[in-house]
Design a protein that fits this description.
Shape: globular
Strand content: 25-35%
Strand order of the largest sheet: 5-4-1-6-11-8-12
Structural class: alpha/beta
Number of helices: 6
Distance between the termini: 20 Å
Largest sheet: 7 strands, mixed
Length: 240
């Protein structure tokens, strides 16, 4: 079976503490939360391989050894796929984790970033066809938990955390980014959030493109959504 392959590296943000899932006593990092006997990360890796990714970079911190052990034992090597891991010495936030990895891997080309607790059925080819920096979007009927992304054409104009007058479907940040390493060259080594620093700066400069991924969006960030995902997969309503 032949598959289209992407030359872009995929940075997987998998270092978070998963504090909102700690009430479930999973005793594993969020990326390894079980879904019908398999870690969520297994579905995520297979999904991005199906979308053409062959070069994975896993950005780790909390219980990093468990993720590394899983990857050592189960990462699929078919289709020429490979991976590397990097462990943050301290929690660096989403932006700091990316900057740390860009420096450590001497990244020079545009690259993709995705959250390890988010599953997107499609979108890699669409966002790679854009000019970086680009932000993947999905349309959602009830976007309150995620906030809303306002567009002018394809240009991202603003992020609204809790829109009070919004009715009908709206675009949300899908957690898939296409970025250039130059955005992180001046990193000072400190913790920071890409959502609070990089993205707003790009919006202010009118440099951030929003791409409708036309994708199913699922995440396991909070217990309610995690259980909903597991139940939907079990009942056959969702196929990962």
């Amino acid at each position: 079976m032949s598959r289209a392959q992407s030359s872009a590296e995929l940075f997987v943000l998998a270092g978070g503490f998963g504090t909102r899932l700690q009430s479930l006593d999973l005793d594993v990092p969020k990326a390894l939360a079980p879904v019908l006997g398999k870690p969520f990360l297994a579905y995520l890796i297979d999904n991005y391989i199906d979308q053409g990714i062959t070069d994975f970079k896993f950005l780790l911190h909390h219980q990093a050894h468990l993720v590394e052990q899983y990857l050592d034992e189960h990462f699929p090597s078919e289709f020429g796929c490979g991976y590397q891991t990097i462990v943050e010495p301290i929690p660096l936030g989403t932006g700091g984790a990316i900057a740390h990895a860009v420096k450590a891997f001497s990244t020079t080309d545009d690259f993709l970033v995705v959250n390890a607790d988010t599953w997107l059925s499609a979108g890699v080819s669409k966002i790679l066809a854009a000019t970086s920096p680009a932000l993947g979007l999905v349309e959602m009927n009830e976007p309150d938990r995620y906030g809303v992304v306002e567009l002018d054409g394809n240009l991202v104009m603003s992020f609204q955390e809790k829109p009070e007058t919004r009715t009908g479907p709206s675009f949300i940040n899908a957690g898939l980014y296409y970025l250039n390493p130059e955005l992180f060259r001046d990193w000072d080594g400190k913790n920071f959030s890409i959502e609070q620093r990089i993205l707003p700066n790009l919006v202010a400069k009118k440099q951030l493109v929003g791409i409708n991924l036309d994708s199913r969006f699922l995440d396991i960030g909070v217990p309610e959504d995690y259980f909903k995902l597991v139940e939907s997969v079990y009942e056959g309503k969702i196929e990962l």
